[in-house]
Please model this.
Amino acid sequence: MMRKKIFKTADGSPSLMIEELKETYHSRHGALTESAYVYIEKGLDYWIENNKKNKVDIFEMGMGTGLNAYLTYCYCKKNHIRLNYNTIEKYPLSIQEIQSLGMKNSLPHTELYHLFDWLHSSDWDKNLFTDYFSFHKSKGDFFDSTLEKKYDVLFYDAFGYHAQPKMWQEDALQICYQMLKPGGVWVSYCAKGSVRRILDSIGFDVERLTGPPGKREILRAVKTV
Ligand SMILES: C[S@@+](CC[C@H](N)C(=O)[O-])C[C@H]1O[C@@H](n2cnc3c(N)ncnc32)[C@H](O)[C@@H]1O
Model:
């Protein structure tokens, strides 16, 4: 078990650092800012705006602190969109780690905080439902993901290339491609040239977008067929 240290990011929201790897769960320039910008604005909102649907199927690689899942739920609730959210996590954080982190205190929508708790306290590997939200968190390895279900948006939130090079190579990115529906959107904080070239060679339509604070660019890739 690797040791994790809690630290405060530039927008005041907390994150975790894996000390041995010097790898963080979020950007030091703002965990909440990064998540809201990369995954919600450039991934989910982009797909909704282009597809004008009131239902969305999302897959997140690496549930971690639940920040992306919570912000997605808030967005969907506000916009009256039915949400089906599936996520996988190989190294789940314990309830104690989540409580010590105190992420909830920096999140918007205090009236929905119970949902943040529920994301963490609910059972692994079960289909769960609340109002117009269905949620499934799998405890396991992304490389063993089932490819039966297809998604509209895929949040690719693995650790960085230097910590987990395998997550940024063709095998992993091919799985992403297989998991998306035609028109589906893959989005990540990563902007590495080699990742962009692999996404492109797999058949994605890849865009480099302006990044959140502290990051020049991020990647968004659309499965056009
Ligand atoms: C950069 S963190 C992001 C976490 C999360 N999205 C959040 O906002 O807190 C990467 C996450 O991916 C998980 N992870 C790493 N490798 C994985 C794998 N092969 N399969 C599933 N999860 C993995 C890590 O345990 C960690 O929770």
Observations:
- Helices lie at 31-51, 67-78, 95-101, 113-121, 170-179, 193-202.
- Residues 30-223 form a domain with the Rossmann fold fold (CATH 3.40.50.150).
- The two ends are 41 Å apart (CA to CA).
- The chain has six helices and eleven strands.
